[in-house]
């Protein structure tokens, strides 16, 4: 029953809680939107000036390439360790990991199918930067570009990361300090990634101006087609795929679940990250009748391994770039890219720019020449990040309910009551324990309802739960 001594405990003691740092990423989002429209305007009004801005997009892509290998290495090493830890939890962890793998693969396949049907980027005929770059300012541009470190090969990095991950697994307790150290390194790498993302408005401005300057309205139409297709695909995936599975397994309605999570969706939409709603998802899943052990295992693991929206984005964006550059990928290349994305996308959720870095890693490992076409994606990536985050978040909510049902660790009456609104969630509270005492059976390993137990009996059971 003991809870973490968080800010609430401090507040109850009469002390003012420490101020949290303001999240300023919404300014980045606004600046990218302004840069995209400004770049498109310059490309349409003064095409030659737009083409001259191409090195700005090239420099930003070079910065992304610089950080790919460290992100892949840290993510894979920690991801392998997470699989081992989650699997040791038993049935819940095993079922969760198998389900996440199946759904991620299914989402990637859907992205490939839709991408091959609509052919996003067709007709743009983008050229590699080297072929399109002007020669007059080459001296200054080449000097500035030489300041950015080169990229490290991705596939050898991936293999090394897998070997290191398995080696640390075999070390057991002795490997835990190393994993913790790599976790700290990953935090530094993601911080660097966030710093690079603050240059995204400049990169997007140059890339969009150059593309629109070369192709005119065709570029705007192609980008709108990709965004529309991506949003539609994610919506259909949530309603048809996730909704059908949820209805068949639990009998719950996906639309009621979406309504139940409406405030979290608004929070995610404003921050472009599903991480911001993680505490509320934990609290709401417990309030919906899922037991604490299932929520405690499924939700955090799902945030790293259950990335349905990111999977759809990665495949559709890859096909967009290859088609726009007139270098379509064969079916074999698409399948190998799919396998790479399944592995490389794990563990990077919730970090701004991580999806873009994973996309760059996949392209570099399979078709390095396609990296020069990523400038267009930089411009519209922020428009698609909300949809990615919303799809990932919904997928994790559905997964928690499904795994609760499969392991008999959910009170279905409470779940229906929570989704119907007859037992409303206290929207003012972020504490999971504030809702754990409602009808949901959160205090026992069995599936018997706790409502019939008297209070003294419940108190007697609680100490046993906290013992390993």
**Given the helix and strand composition, which structural class is it?**
mainly alpha
Spatial extent as radius of gyration = 24 Å
Global morphology? globular
Weakly predicted, low-confidence segments: 1-15, 131-137, 430-468
Which range best describes the helical content: under 10%, 10-25%, 25-40%, 40-55%, 55-70% or over 70%? over 70%
Elements, N to C (H/E): HHHHHHHHHHHHHHHHHHHHHH
Percent in strands: under 5%
Mean pLDDT: 74
Largest sheet: none
Distance between the termini: 14 Å
Total beta strands: 0
The protein's oligomeric status is: single chain
Question: Count of helical segments?
Answer: 22
Membrane topology: Multi-pass membrane protein
Keywords: Membrane, Transmembrane, Transmembrane helix, Transport
Biased composition (Polar residues): 459-468
Pfam families: SDF (PF00375)
Describe this structure in words.
There is one protein chain. The chain has 468 residues and is mainly α. 73% of the residues lie in helices and 0% in strands. It is built from 22 helices and no strands. It has helices at 7-12, 25-45, 47-52, 54-88, 91-118, 129-132, 138-146, 154-171, 176-197, 200-215, 217-250, 254-260, 262-271, 278-287, 292-305, 308-324, 331-344, 354-366, 375-406, 412-420, 433-436, 455-466. The two termini are 14 Å apart. This is C4-dicarboxylate transporter DctA.
């Amino acid at each position: 029953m003991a809870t973490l001594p968080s800010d609430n405990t401090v507040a109850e003691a009469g002390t003012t809680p420490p101020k949290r740092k303001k999240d300023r990423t919404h300014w980045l989002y606004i600046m990218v939107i302004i840069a995209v429209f400004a770049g498109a305007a310059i490309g349409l009004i003064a095409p030659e000036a737009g083409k001259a801005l191409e090195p700005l997009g090239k420099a930003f892509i070079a910065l992304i390439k610089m950080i790919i290998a460290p992100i892949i290495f840290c993510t894979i090493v920690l991801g392998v360790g997470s699989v081992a830890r989650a699997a040791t939890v038993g049935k819940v962890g095993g079922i969760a990991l198998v389900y996440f793998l199946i759904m991620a693969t299914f989402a990637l396949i859907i992205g490939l199918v839709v991408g091959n049907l609509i052919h996003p980027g067709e007709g743009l005929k983008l050229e590699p930067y080297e072929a399109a770059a002007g020669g007059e300012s080459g001296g200054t541009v080449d000097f500035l570009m030489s300041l950015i470190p080169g990229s490290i090969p991705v596939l050898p990095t991936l293999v090394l990361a897998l070997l290191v991950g398995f080696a640390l697994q075999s070390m057991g307790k002795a490997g835990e300090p190393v994993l913790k150290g790599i976790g700290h390194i990953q935090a530094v790498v993601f911080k660097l990634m966030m710093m690079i993302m603050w240059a995204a408005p400049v990169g997007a401005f140059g890339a969009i101006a150059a593309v629109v300057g070369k192709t005119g309205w065709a570029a705007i139409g192609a980008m709108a087609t990709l965004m529309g297709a991506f949003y539609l695909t994610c919506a259909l995936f949530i309603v048809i795929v996730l909704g059908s599975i949820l209805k068949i397994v639990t009998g719950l309605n996906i639309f009621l679940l979406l309504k139940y999570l409406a405030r979290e969706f608004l929070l995610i939409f404003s921050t472009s990250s599903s991480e911001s709603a993680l505490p509320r998802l934990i609290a709401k899943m417990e309030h919906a009748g899922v037991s604490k052990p299932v929520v405690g295992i499924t939700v955090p693991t799902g945030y790293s391994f259950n990335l349905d929206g990111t999977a759809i984005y990665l495949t559709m964006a890859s096909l967009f770039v290859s088609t726009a550059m007139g270098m379509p990928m064969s079916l074999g290349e698409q399948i190998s890219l799919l396998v790479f994305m399944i592995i490389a996308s794990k563990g990077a959720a919730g970090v701004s720019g991580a999806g873009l870095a994973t996309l760059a890693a996949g392209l570099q490992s399979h078709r390095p020449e396609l990296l020069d076409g990523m400038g267009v994606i930089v411009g519209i990536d922020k428009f698609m990040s909300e949809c990615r985050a919303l799809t990932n978040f919904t997928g994790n909510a559905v997964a928690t309910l499904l795994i609760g049902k499969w392991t008999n660790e959910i009170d279905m009456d409470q779940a229906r009551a929570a989704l119907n609104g007859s037992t409303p969630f206290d929207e003012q509270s972020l504490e999971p324990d504030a809702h754990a005492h409602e009808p949901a059976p959160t205090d026992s390993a069995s599936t018997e309802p706790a409502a019939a137990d008297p209070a003294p009996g419940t108190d007697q059971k609680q100490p046993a739960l906290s013992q390993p």
